[in-house]
């Protein structure tokens, strides 16, 4: 029962962007892969890049959710997150059959265009391959 309680609290901390609490749970051995990489998915969806960086460093599998992570960032127009996950080596080749129409339109408009490239290049000043962001929230 204690383990189930801990995992629920871990997920809640990830949802709230509480990196300090997420770190504490990881230090005591919580399964960061639980619920299909839920903590990592949540951090990506909310732009908590410090948390994403920490979880990936601790072994979270960003490649397992490459399409979902990329599509979420694209849907929200979060160019900082797009650039970040591309820097982590996520392959942006997507299966768009299940994508909402707005995502398909966005991808068709920007994915191979210089406009997206310009936005990605201008969204961040040059950063190391694994950037860190203050307070984990953009």
From TrEMBL:
Gene3D superfamilies: Ankyrin repeat-containing domain (1.25.40.20). The keyword GTP-binding does not apply. PROSITE patterns: ANK_REPEAT. InterPro entries: Ankyrin_rpt (IPR002110), Ankyrin_rpt-contain_sf (IPR036770). The keyword Glycosyltransferase does not apply. Transmembrane segments: none annotated. It comes from the Bacteria. This is Uncharacterized protein.
